[in-house]
TrEMBL record, chain A:
<dbReference type="InterPro" id="IPR014284">
    <property type="entry name" value="RNA_pol_sigma-70_dom"/>
</dbReference>
<feature type="domain" description="RNA polymerase sigma factor 70 region 4 type 2">
    <location>
        <begin position="102"/>
        <end position="154"/>
    </location>
</feature>
<dbReference type="InterPro" id="IPR013325">
    <property type="entry name" value="RNA_pol_sigma_r2"/>
</dbReference>
<dbReference type="InterPro" id="IPR039425">
    <property type="entry name" value="RNA_pol_sigma-70-like"/>
</dbReference>
<keyword id="KW-0731">Sigma factor</keyword>
<dbReference type="GO" id="GO:0006352">
    <property type="term" value="P:DNA-templated transcription initiation"/>
</dbReference>
<keyword id="KW-0238">DNA-binding</keyword>
<protein>
    <submittedName>
        <fullName>RNA polymerase sigma factor</fullName>
    </submittedName>
</protein>
<keyword id="KW-0804">Transcription</keyword>
Automatic annotation (TrEMBL), chain B:
<keyword id="KW-0472">Membrane</keyword>
<feature type="region of interest" description="Disordered">
    <location>
        <begin position="180"/>
        <end position="212"/>
    </location>
</feature>
<protein>
    <submittedName>
        <fullName>Uncharacterized protein</fullName>
    </submittedName>
</protein>
<keyword id="KW-0812">Transmembrane</keyword>
<feature type="compositionally biased region" description="Low complexity">
    <location>
        <begin position="192"/>
        <end position="206"/>
    </location>
</feature>
<feature type="transmembrane region" description="Helical">
    <location>
        <begin position="50"/>
        <end position="69"/>
    </location>
</feature>
<keyword id="KW-1133">Transmembrane helix</keyword>
Length: 173, 212
């Protein structure tokens, strides 16, 4: 029983590790935080393994947990330093990026956190409306509406920072 | 097709494809080994949820409560807490986790229980978990803590939307003191137990109180 459980978790871990690490790296300001999000999210998955859905839904479930872990981390959660220090050391390189797209970054950061996450799930994780609806536990229609509004606000922000020409939103609905 | 978030995509410092194989590195395998070594505590256990999952053992217990106060009340409700007798247990649902401990003690006193609970801010995984417990006197206290989810809510994902629940058996006798994890407020320092030791804490010695 224990071996079965461990084997299933290992399969989940191996299949989703890169996705979850990517999710965390793209959102955290330093590698230590990203590694902590990965460690804490997988620790929760281990304890809640019976709740982890199979197939494509696994990744979405983990994103949902990671999102919550991130929110709590931003409120000052303690780090799982013992588990994640080595992992953090491995991903240092991703934080040495050039500072191009600063105007876009500034514009993006002016958006409400919910808008940023919604746009990130599309732009970074490549999720569609249905997948985001599963992750956020809301209807596809709610996702469509919220995304439409987020895109409008992003367009305005990009225009105001001179980061780009507004894009016609209607075309992409 | 151009979309408004195309510039946002360029902000991503890493693509998942850049991380292919990251789950097989030594650090990732060490993390996996450490995680599966952690004991698993059933989420919906009706027995005591110990903090064993965090590597900390707390022996709760044995205390001794005399039930059935003079008034014989079996329920109590305020803006902070609601206590009801359900299936042999006094079930306390915390309506305001930030209320003063005195508010909770008052509720338990009203139904004849000498219970003192303190809610402390913790990491999401410890919300609803008894972090410390103490029981005094003779007899046995059967108790548990948990979180109750509204329909469609996963407490692991949205703990703030769930209700903290404490159950104390109707036939318990004695006094108990519990420290239970609650959702932290923004910026609030966490009071997670020190998980560096697997030794029981000194507060956990109440099990010697007997089983009455």
């Amino acid at each position: 029983m224990d071996e079965e459980r461990t084997a299933r978790f290992e399969a989940v871990y191996t299949a989703t590790f890169a996705h979850l690490l990517g999710y965390a790296l793209r959102r955290c300001d330093c590698q230590e935080d990203a590694a902590d999000v990965v460690a804490e999210t997988f620790a929760i998955a281990w304890r809640r393994l019976d709740s982890v859905p199979p197939g494509d839904q696994t990744r979405l479930w983990l994103y949902g947990v990671a999102r919550n872990v991130l929110a709590n981390q931003r409120r000052g959660a303690a780090r799982r330093a013992d588990l994640s220090a080595a992992l953090a050391a491995e991903v240092t390189g991703f934080y040495e990026q050039p500072s191009e797209d600063d105007a876009v970054r500034r514009a993006f950061r002016t958006l409400p956190a919910d808008d940023r996450e919604l746009l990130s799930l599309v732009a970074w994780e490549g999720l569609d409306h249905g997948e985001i609806a599963v992750l956020l536990r809301c209807s596809r229609n709610a996702v469509r509406i919220r995304l439409h509004r987020a895109r409008k606000r992003l367009n305005r922000a990009l225009a105001s920072t001179g980061a780009g020409e507004p894009v016609l939103i209607r075309r992409i609905q | 097709m151009t979309t408004p978030e195309d510039p946002v995509a360029r902000l991503a410092r890493v693509d998942d494809t850049d991380l292919a194989g990251a789950g097989s590195t030594a650090a990732a395998r060490s993390l996996l080994t450490a995680i599966v070594a952690e004991p698993v505590v059933p989420r919906r256990s009706r027995t005591l949820r110990l903090v064993a999952a965090a590597g900390l053992t707390v022996a709760l217990a044995a205390g001794a409560v005399l039930l059935g106060g003079p008034g014989g009340a079996t329920s109590y409700a305020s803006s902070a807490i609601e206590v009801r007798l359900e299936g042999g247990y006094f079930v306390a649902r915390i309506k305001d986790p930030l209320a003063e401990s005195a508010e909770f003690a008052k509720a338990f006193r009203a139904v004849g229980l000498d219970a003192d609970i303190t809610l402390v801010p913790v990491s999401p995984r410890l919300v609803g978990v008894m972090i410390e417990g103490w029981g005094g006197g003779r007899g046995t206290v059967r108790s548990s803590s948990d979180v109750e989810a509204p329909p469609g809510v996963d407490c692991a994902v949205r703990p703030a939307d769930c209700t903290l629940v404490l159950r104390i058996s109707e036939d318990s006798t004695g006094a108990v003191r519990y420290k239970i994890g609650r959702v932290a407020e923004p910026g609030e320092p966490l009071q997670d137990p020190d998980t560096s030791s697997t030794e029981p804490t000194s507060t956990g010695n109440a099990s010697s109180g007997g089983t009455g």
